[in-house]
Amino acid sequence: MSGLKKRGIWCSPGGLTQDAVNNHTGRLKKAGFNLMLPEVKHGDGKIAWQSERFPELARDNLNGFDPAAALVNAKEIHGMEMHAWFIDYYERVAFEEHPEWAQRDAMGRTTGEEQLRGQQFTAEWMCPAQRPGYTDQRLVPLYEDFAQRYAFDAVHHDYIRYPGDLAPDQYCFCDSCLEEIPKWANLYWEKWPKERFHHDTYDREYLEAHWEPTPTALPDNWDRLPRHMKAHFLLEGCFFEGGREDMDYFFYEFRKHWVTQFAKDSAEAVRAARPGMKISQAVFKNPIHAGRFIGQDWTRFSDHVDSCMPMNYRDHFPGDYEIYLKALEEIIIRQRDDWASDYEELLSGMAINFLFYEEEGPLAALARAAKDGDPGAGAAFWPMVIAAVRTHEPALADEIERWIDSTAPSYESSMKDVRWYQSHFNKGEVDSPKAAPESIKTGLASLLKNPPEGFYPASKVERLIDMVADCNIDGLVFFCDGHLDKYKMWDVVEAKFAQH
Length: 500
What we know:
Layout: E1 6-11, H1 18-30, E2 35-41, H2 67-78, E3 81-87, E4 90-91, H3 93-97, E5 115-116, E6 119-120, E7 124-125, H4 134-149, E8 154-158, H5 175-184, H6 227-236, H7 248-273, E9 278-284, H8 287-294, E10 307-311, H9 321-339, E11 345-351, H10 357-372, H11 375-392, H12 394-407, H13 415-426, H14 438-449, H15 458-470, E12 475-479, H16 481-486, H17 490-498
Parallel strand pairs: 1-2, 1-12, 2-3, 3-8, 8-9, 9-10, 10-11, 11-12
Antiparallel strand pairs: 4-7, 5-6
Helix pairs in contact: 1-2, 4-7, 6-7, 7-8, 9-15, 10-11, 10-14, 11-12, 11-13, 15-17
């Protein structure tokens, strides 16, 4: 069985005193971790260090304490490798100060105006391509400032991309991008913006074979088109009038170019500020797909990033847990032998919480059914969690069974009966909902928030560690310390790491 040279974890700094940070670092060291990635630039734009250059960005609760300095001390005490975790283009504070830096969709709206899964999306994504803009005025200077001040082993990119959850083709069409994309792709001649420059002789079979003289590709009325029509052209238009709908190629390449340029600019700033400091990154598992959908073709970053940590999370893969393990092995080998072969090291990023879909999903659905007073829905999900609940909370299990049996078909009934009940319940053809007792609601909520040790199967974590170790890469990184607490996996990880 192969070993794991690096055993990392994305985590919080650990507290607001030196003792708290030392204790947190020591606890991680005891569990077998030798690499910490504490978050120092958060998704709201606030920072966990005392910056002379950006003092207004320090987190409100620091009260003069410097977590980054405390982490440097803890790193030396415990011999821990330390990477400073930055959230790059996912922001809030910068938008409040500079709304012009934000990414815009075809209607001029920002990501903060989006609905995601039925809820308001509160974060703002900043445009990577604007110059001057967020990248050169805020983000690169933050990396430079941190590198100058703190002797971490590395800085770490996260969210080095365009948004993915929010219809990725819809960003960015800010004023700057609409002006710069045609210039960057040379879709017209700046000296002759209205001249079409048609080919002298269309003497080949395919229209697109006549691309070399660089005809003007923008429509004649480009300057008069509103934002949404320009966006439509960049996604659906043709380089040649009447040709293939290929204009989106330039749109996607523009996005990849500027994300890569940021990786380059930040690397130059960091390496100049602290020679020898390394750079790592959290990226999506497949750089070819990520390049298309979020501008993150990380095969292009290897000159600017030393350590590659693809987020091989279960929610990024299809199927059940067994399919996940097999697909994970395939993708890690592809990363190792191909996509990440130019990096100094490759670590597989793993998310603890997503491992437990089969256990946590039905439990959450059962809790929802109890809250809604829908024992029919409860009957559908109860069989999936009965063993774990009965083992750890037998009194709660008895209550749940009494509630379900009081109105709904037995949990032993066929799914057809359950679906009939739910269908007629939703149509108002079944008696009023049978509210679950408060003890059931609070019991299920407690299980979800603070499950007892052993409630979630340790074997999922153990098998995952073994599988990654067998892939012959440099190591793994877990997300995150809070999940070790919630799912009670500290001892499990410690014991398994001891075998590697």
